[in-house]
Amino acid sequence: MAAPRRRTVRDLRRGNRAVVLSKLYFDGPLSRQELGPLTALSSGSISNVVAELVADGLVEEAGSVDSDGGRPRTLLRVAPRSGHLVGVDVGETRVRVELFDLALGELARVDEPLPEAARDGRCDAKDVVRLVTAGLTRVLADAGADPGSVIGVGIGVPGIVDASGAGGAVVHGQTIGWDAVPLEAMLRAPDGLPPELAPDVPLFLDNGAKTLGHAEMWFGAGRGARNAVIALIGSGVGACVIADGLPYQGASSSAGEWGHTVLRVGGRACRCGARGCLEAYVGAEALLARWREAGGDWTAADEEGALAELLEDPSTADLLDETAEYLGAGIADLVNLFNPERIVVGGWAGLMLGPRLLDQVRRAAASYALRHPFAQTTVELGHLGPDAVTVGAATLPLARFLETGGARSSPL
């Protein structure tokens, strides 16, 4: 058994920077005097760390406040323009790329549809790489951003992300026809990321539902909860399970495939190849298919527009009632399995359906769940809107940046 590595002065310095930077990021602006008790660091350590962070351009003054009888206290905050973050949402019908400042203020955005074949479950990973690359080039140009200021690129994808191998993250996306697609290696290839980006720019890939969960837990409806489930309802269905404040990954990062839990034995065919999955009843693609089978139709060219037409059609009332009961039953399963204090429904389709169906969903969940754990759970809509997946993707490089005390690509 190897002996534990001893902490060095460099480790201590990096840890102190990380503590101060994170506290300023999430709770700032704060004065030096306020940072002391909040971080448990001495006033001398606070002064040294703040001086370093200011010299590095990562922290800046943000005004002052009066103190009790003394000199005004200078407030400090993380400098929003000290770096850029990229969030990418690889959806099942389009790729969205957004450029953010360090405070996650949006600076530029590009939406590009995937080829029509992707809608039939035949998504070519080369098309995704091409659209991500083109999107990165465009957002950097549109914002006039220095490519060297990019701290990292976070990418949310449909499917299971396995980052355990030496060759980078591999994606298993059964519903889109991906079987162990080496997406990170493809992005790192010479025809992958834009040449203006540093070749070692950090890349972070994760399931889209998990990036949504990250965003809602940091900035949205999940904030403050220790045990929660963030549900994504879009074309398909997924979830991010938070256990004691941390995302639950499972043995190979595939935990949270809530959409492929069986709701009805021998039920509707699901895109994954099984039958009766929750996704086959409440995902936007399946909901539209059920409407068409009932004689409905729409004029919109995309799923978002089609779902809006479904919601406006009075003849779909029974279909929506049934959908609310299916979703409520699925939420009851989450309550019984994980005993969360909060369940947050997000994703573009979830946010469209929510205002119409949420009360019905709560009633259905109450009728299917065990009474005691359900009484401890709230069910609510996400707060961050349809951009939550890209915001969450951008938090992946941001988290590493804060954890390393503001290091760019390598630890201090």
Automatic annotation (TrEMBL):
Pfam families: ROK
InterPro entries recorded: ATPase_NBD (IPR043129), ROK (IPR000600), WH-like_DNA-bd_sf (IPR036388), WH_DNA-bd_sf (IPR036390)
SUPFAM superfamilies the record matches: Actin-like ATPase domain, Winged helix' DNA-binding domain
PANTHER family the record matches: BIFUNCTIONAL UDP-N-ACETYLGLUCOSAMINE 2-EPIMERASE_N-ACETYLMANNOSAMINE KINASE, ROK (REPRESSOR, ORF, KINASE) FAMILY
Family: Belongs to the ROK (NagC/XylR) family.
Protein's recorded name: ROK family transcriptional regulator
